[in-house]
Specification:
28% helix, 4-stranded antiparallel beta sheet, 5 helices
Length: 203
């Protein structure tokens, strides 16, 4: 049954209509798919956070794309029409917008979690460089400010975590696994880490 569902997702992703990058709304006939440019050279940290807020807040599968040079073997063929960004990570979440903030503006995200005692932070963030640590990057800081960053979201309203995991596998069957995607631990919620009260560097 799992293989059948993965293959159905594979066909769905291959047929999905992805809107042009920068559009804040879904494309006609695209089942709600959105493609938001999160950052471009010269944009401010406030601009980045404002663009992240345009992302759906519900459950879905997301693809992080960039023009930055990323280490590793690039086999993923997923592309967006008329754009030069490449897919480097695919994942899923019950709250896509919050999850993308945790991946791409990690210092600001952890500071926000520290300021809200009831908010338990995500764990298992995107890693660009190999090594120890939980990952997470700040695309408003060097070396990531030289490129464009885009997020494509395939909404999955009402979906369960096991179903979204099958969607991840279906995406990889359709296009190959993006270069910085890894098998994430079952528990994607991390421990709260104390963040200095001063404004994060570059934010």
């Amino acid at each position: 049954m799992a293989n059948e569902i993965e293959n159905r997702f594979k066909e769905y992703f291959r047929a999905a209509v992805v809107p042009p990058v920068g559009a804040s709304g879904p494309a006609p006939g695209g089942n709600g798919v959105v493609a938001i440019e999160i950052a471009s050279p010269g944009c401010s940290a406030d601009d980045v956070l404002a663009r992240i807020r345009l992302l759906p807040r519900g459950p879905g599968l997301y693809v992080i794309m960039t023009t930055c040079d990323i280490p590793g073997r690039d086999v993923c063929t997923f592309a967006v029409r008329d754009s030069d960004v490449k897919a480097i990570y695919r994942g899923h979440s019950s709250n896509v917008g919050d999850r993308i903030m945790s991946h791409l503006t990690n210092t600001a995200y952890m500071a926000m979690c520290d300021a809200i005692p009831s908010k338990k932070p995500w764990g298992g963030f995107i890693k660009i460089a190999e090594g120890v640590g939980d990952g997470g990057i700040d695309i408003t800081s060097v070396p990531y400010t030289t490129g464009k960053w885009t997020v494509v979201v395939f909404p999955m309203e009402g979906s369960s975590e096991p179903l979204r995991r099958l969607a991840e596998e279906g995406f990889s069957l359709a296009f190959g696994t993006p270069v910085r995607s890894i098998k994430e631990p079952k528990n994607r919620r991390g421990k709260r880490s104390k963040i200095p009260s001063a404004s994060p560097t570059g934010m």
